[in-house]
Write a structure and sequence with these properties.
This protein has one domain: Double Stranded RNA Binding Domain, CATH 3.30.160. It has 2 helices and 5 strands, in the order βαββββα. Strands 1-5-4-3-2 form a 5-stranded antiparallel beta sheet, covered by helices on one side. The longest helix is centred in the last third of the chain and has 19 residues. The N and C termini lie far apart (35 Å).
Length: 102
């Protein structure tokens, strides 16, 4: 079954990090599958909130926050790739604070 679900994820990429880090994050955004660009400063992949399939990101007090609507396996694959690429590019292990990543 390929059911579309809503997904959320917070990562340990914090708002207070320097611009050099955020410039690298912007480059990672653009390298990810489905990149569509920014709308009102919000990055989007595959579509926007009114579409059936989308991923968007925002910077929150809880870290870099992703919201998505897609099937579970595509979401897991995309997020694993983002975490792996961010870890490689940023030089620290990127993951969810709830899983102990700080």
């Amino acid at each position: 079954m390929n059911e579309t679900n809503s997904h959320h994820c917070n990562l340990n990429i914090w708002a207070h990090l320097p611009d050099e880090v955020w410039n690298k994050v912007a480059n990672i955004y653009e390298s990810m599958p489905g990149w569509m660009g920014y709308t009102d400063g919000i990055p989007h992949w595959f579509g926007q909130e009114e579409d059936d399939i989308f991923i968007s990101a925002s910077v929150e007090p809880s870290g870099l926050s992703f919201h998505a609507q897609m099937n579970q396996s595509d979401w897991d694959s995309w997020m694993d790739r983002f975490k792996s690429e961010a870890t490689r590019v940023l030089g620290f292990e990127v993951g969810e604070p709830e899983d102990g990543f700080v």
